[in-house]
Amino acid sequence: MKLSLFISDLIARGPLYAVANYRIHTPVPLDAEENWRFWTEPKSLWLEWLARSYPLEPARIAYINAMLDRDHSVGIEAHYDVSNDFYALFLDTKYRFYTCAEFESDTETLETAQTNKAEYLRSLLNLDGDEKILDLGCGWGAMLKFLQDIGHRGELTGFTLSKEQQIYADQELGLNVSLTNFITHPFENAAYDRVLSIGALEHVRPKELEQMYQKIYDALVPGGLAVHQFFSLAREPYPNSVVMLQLFFPGSMLVMHHTHIEAAERVGFKITHDSIHDYRPTLRAWYDRFVANRSPALELVGLETFNRYMTFFPISWLFFQQHEADLHRMVMLKL
Ligand SMILES: C[S@@+](CC[C@H](N)C(=O)[O-])C[C@H]1O[C@@H](n2cnc3c(N)ncnc32)[C@H](O)[C@@H]1O
């Protein structure tokens, strides 16, 4: 990567973005140990301050607003349509969840931790077995498959924006998953007993949020539940980390947690559960699997994408370590 690009990134996007982008373009594969330490070891106070303060807030807002004007689906596809075989190199082998698991001890495998998470969400869904369920942003169909495996009898439907995921969920798992944009696609009124989302509300942009909750509310039968797992900003609405996040999710912008609650309540939901969970063990588990599969990963996606994911996991770990955002599980009741 040219030094001139690093310098222009530094001025326009700040040190966090510039260093991340520089490391992504390193001409050799990043070293596993050095790379994890580079991002996660504590820095001097002035370096932390610099990373948090630049670019100044008006520049962050202008840049993010320009990114939000782009076609959102292009950014989603850029992240998820890398290759199904690539994601299989680090996700759990049982369900292929690409969302925060629930580690109950340090010795648990990723497979067990993802099953724990699915069980936790199942308890929040409060099912008797016949409910009609819609999964927004269903990925590779992980939660739908889990529900199928436990013998759920009601109709299961999933929406994704990723062609690769849809092909896998439809052809490999035989699930009813379609390539449907849940933000722009109208939902049928009072059609579902449960609306579920795991790691999808992060992709709903601030100006779309209330309309999204309204659609979910209208799609539920009275007494129906919306169960969501997502992360939201905990400290400030425009942290520098969301500028840097554009390297991984172009055109996505997170929302403050209180904004989620206010929007959901305004459309009529009663919030009956809101718990916070630790994303860091899952990110570390994905990283460890990813570096263990370094050769096939490099072969499948090449150097730049390899280094992009090497950077993505520890940077995301840091994001939660510094409490820029928290991972929530929520239940919303339609009265
Ligand atoms: C982090 S993945 C989570 C996948 C899955 N729920 C899981 O737990 O593994 C986010 C998912 O949201 C989907 N997504 C994001 N925005 C979307 C939209 N507007 N319409 C449909 N799917 C969307 C992506 O395609 C992807 O499947």
CATH superfamily: Vaccinia Virus protein VP39
Please count the helical segments.
Answer: 15
Main CATH class: Alpha Beta
CATH architecture assignment: 3-Layer(aba) Sandwich
Tally of individual domains: 1
Fraction in helix: 40-55%
Relative strand content: 15-25%
Q: Low-confidence stretches at least 5 residues in length (pLDDT < 50)? A: none
What hetero molecules are in the model? Answer: S-adenosylmethionine
Distance between the termini: 55 Å
Specify the overall morphology.
Answer: globular
Written as H for each helix and E for each strand, in order along the chain, the element string is HHHHHHHHEHEHEEHEHHEHHE
Strand order across the largest sheet: 3-2-1-4-5-7-6
Q: State the total count of DSSP E strands.
A: 7
> What profile does the largest beta sheet have?
7 strands, mixed
User: What is the CATH topology assignment?
Assistant: Rossmann fold
Structural class, judged by helices and strands?
alpha/beta
Give me the Rg, rounded: 20 Å
Mean pLDDT over the residues:
95
